[in-house]
Design a protein that fits this description.
This protein is mostly beta strands. Among the domains are: 62 residues, no CATH class; 130 residues. Helices cover 8% and strands 28% of the residues. The protein contains three helices and 40 strands. Strands 6, 7, 9, 10, 12, 14, 16 and 18 form an eight-stranded mixed beta sheet that branches. The chain has a six-stranded mixed beta sheet with strand order 19-20-21-23-25-28, with no helix packed on it. The protein is elongated, with a radius of gyration of 28 Å. The N and C termini lie far apart (77 Å). The structure holds zinc ion (ZN) (2 copies). One zinc ion binds next to loops. One zinc ion (ZN) binds next to loops.
Length: 470
């Protein structure tokens, strides 16, 4: 390495180290391109504290309060004016409290939930805790991690809420008459928005959903103003922050999801027209059960971008007879069997989705077939490779040309309705004994539901097995 460059790199890394150290020290100083931010004290409000540099005027700290056991912020000294009389429940496992109700607090103007109660952290707001309460504001401390369903439902005087960065799960604000805005911080840890989280809020127009959210359950914004007012939609698609929430009936054919999108919510395509292909953006991380209305959709192609980490188990169950499947190389969570035209979850070796032309071998080590893996595919015969142990629901549903299927003896569980609508099915070849087949079907309830009228035979190593004994 060039010596001068090396010195430069070294100096830079020393700077970075100093900068980091300074950032976390008690004076709150912070390196900024040769200039060290400085401030005498914190500014604060009831949610956060911050520092503004006395030299350059820049904000260099802005974060949630950090509370001690006396509900006082250890950084800025702010103390929560705790609302007295609330109900709590101790979670024995975590030794933390859940706040469960308004108790004797009555008609408070602002609800102040403490960070600590009886010396223990308050980490949860329980199901329906403040249902139909009348406060006009609520302050949630930075110890809370879960806000359970309906916790603030029909709190009809509430107009805005700030959710602390510590919250990872929220399912709380549906059905509020005046709620206009919900604010998440820059460092929000929110992972999951529960079903109906912000539904039925007729005034709700502002929610800055953090990029880090990985699961948005269905009906999250249903009938809220964000949903009902078409000015929030783009070309028939509703995006909130960098997340795709819903489609309307004008969306059909080949649909391109906007670049920048991080997740596609559950049931996002529920109300769409006849979609045949969804082009997923490079930015995508999580793809939930976005089409799960079970409408048949003639799908041509599925291409999974490199950054996708999460695919819901029903993500493709509406797709019928997919022609082409590929996963961009470099994806750490999914692969396409090296050009085998299928979608495989790498860690579990589960086949999530197959196509009209999937090429499987035992050497690939596939362990399971996922929901509706080959729905509507057009092949006439199929050999399940040796080593597969489990077939989930409806593996070959709607494979209208399928005449023959070979099942290895390694299979220990058949999925529900695995041959439904396979009207041409003639022969199932099982590579174990008749007794093995009987044991297998006994464990696999409903495996031939939807196929009982189809006259296929079951050929085992030692003869023909009877159809299911009921
Ligand atoms: Zn400064
Ligand atoms: Zn503070």
């Amino acid at each position: 390495m060039n010596k001068r460059l090396f010195c430069g790199v070294l100096a830079l890394s020393i700077c970075l180290t100093l900068g980091l150290a300074a950032c976390g020290n008690e004076t709150g100083n912070n390196e900024n391109g040769g200039h060290v931010h400085t401030a005498d004290s914190f500014g604060s409000d009831e949610d956060i504290h911050w520092k503004v540099c006395t030299d350059c005027g820049e904000k260099f700290i802005e974060e949630d309060h950090k509370y001690n056991g006396s509900n006082t912020c250890t950084e800025c000294g702010y103390t929560i004016p705790e609302t007295a009389g609330l109900e709590y429940e101790l979670n024995e496992e975590t030794d933390t409290y859940s706040v469960e109700g308004i108790g004797t607090a009555g008609d408070v103007e602002t609800l102040y939930i403490p960070a600590y109660h009886d010396g223990k952290r308050v980490t949860e707001i329980g199901y329906g805790a403040f249902f139909e309460c009348t406060f006009t504001a609520v302050k949630i401390p930075s110890t809370v991690e879960r806000i359970e369903g309906a916790a603030f439902t029909e709190c009809n005087a509430l107009t805005e809420v700030k959710i602390p960065d510590s919250v990872t799960f929220s399912k709380a604000f549906g059905g509020n008459a005046l709620l206009k805005s919900v604010t998440f911080g820059k460092n929000s840890k929110l992972e999951t928005l529960g079903k109906g989280s912000f539904g039925y809020c007729p005034e709700l127009t502002s929610v800055n959903l953090p990029d880090g959210v990985r699961l948005i359950e269905d009906d999250t914004f249903e009938e809220s103003k964000i949903y009902t007012d078409k000015s929030f939609w783009t070309d028939g698609i509703l995006y909130v922050g960098n997340h795709m929430i819903a489609t309307d009936e004008t969306v059909s054919g080949k649909v391109t999801v906007r670049e920048g999108t991080k997740t596609i919510a559950e049931a996002a395509f529920q109300d769409s027209g006849d979609v045949t292909e969804v082009v997923l953006p490079e930015s995508l991380v999580a793809l939930h059960d976005y089409i799960h209305d079970m409408t048949k959709r003639e799908a041509k192609s599925v291409v999974i971008p490199k950054g996708v980490e999460i695919i819901g188990s029903n993500a493709f169950s509406s797709f019928y007879g997919v022609d082409h499947i590929s996963v961009e190389s470099g994806n750490a969570f999914y692969n396409d069997g090296n050009g085998a035209n299928c979608l495989i979850e790498t860690a579990t070796n589960k086949l999530v989705l197959g196509s009209n032309d999937t090429q499987l071998t035992a050497a690939m080590g596939i362990k399971e077939f996922g929901y509706f893996a080959f729905r509507g595919c057009n092949f006439e015969s199929f050999t399940i490779p040796d080593g597969v142990t489990k077939l989930e629901v409806a593996t070959f549903a709607g494979c209208a040309n399928l005449k023959s299927v070979e099942i290895p003896a390694s299979v220990t569980e058949l999925g529900y309705e695995m041959f439904s609508e396979c009207d041409k099915l003639q022969n199932v070849v099982f590579k174990g004994s008749v007794n093995d087949w009987k044991a297998l079907t006994e464990k696999s309830e409903g495996w031939d539901d939807g196929a009982q009228e189809i006259a296929f035979t079951i050929t085992c190593n030692d003869g023909q097995a009877p159809r299911t004994e009921r």
